[in-house]
Amino acid sequence: MLAYIRSKSISTVGYHGIHVKYARKTNYTGAATEKMVVEWSLDNGSNWQPALESTADTAWAYKDWTLPSTADGKTTIKVRFSGGWDNSTKFAYVDGVEIAGTPN
Predict the structure, then answer these.
(1) What's the rounded Cα separation, in Å, for the pair 18 and 25?
(2) What pTM was computed for the model?
(3) pLDDT, tens digit, for every residue of 43-99?
(4) Which of 2, 38, 49, 67 lies at a C-alpha separation of 20 to 30 Å from 9?
């Protein structure tokens, strides 16, 4: 199985009500292990929180996840998009990623 991971670290200091927004789709078909997984971490990737989603949806969908208040005002949080699939013709597509919050 191949895996590809893309991640980004950001600061939420001075913000609350943190949202992770993006559009996504996959071209996965078949194996149950073929999923795109979206996760987040409060400590720059040492401890990942439960996944925001795990999907093999082949249609474009816009997602807007509100993180728990534990993500507010942190020096570093990290969001990652990863995928697992059985051959190199499978892809997960992600577009328009936005991590936003309301100023304190």
Answers:
(1) 23
(2) 0.87
(3) 878 889 989 999 989 999 999 999 999 999 999 999 999 887 666 677 888 999 999
(4) 2
| Domain ranges, ordered by start, for the chain | 2-103
Q: Homologous superfamily of 2-103 in CATH? A: Galactose-binding domain-like (2.60.120.260)
The angle formed by the CA atoms of residues 62, 14 and 48, to the nearest 5 degrees, is 55
Q: Give the tokens for residue 98.
A: 């936005």
Structure-token pair, residue 74: 């942190």
| DSSP-based three-state secondary structure for 71 | helix
Give the burial class of 76: count Cβ atoms within 10 A of its Cβ; 0-12 exposed, 13-18 middle, 19 or more buried. Answer: middle
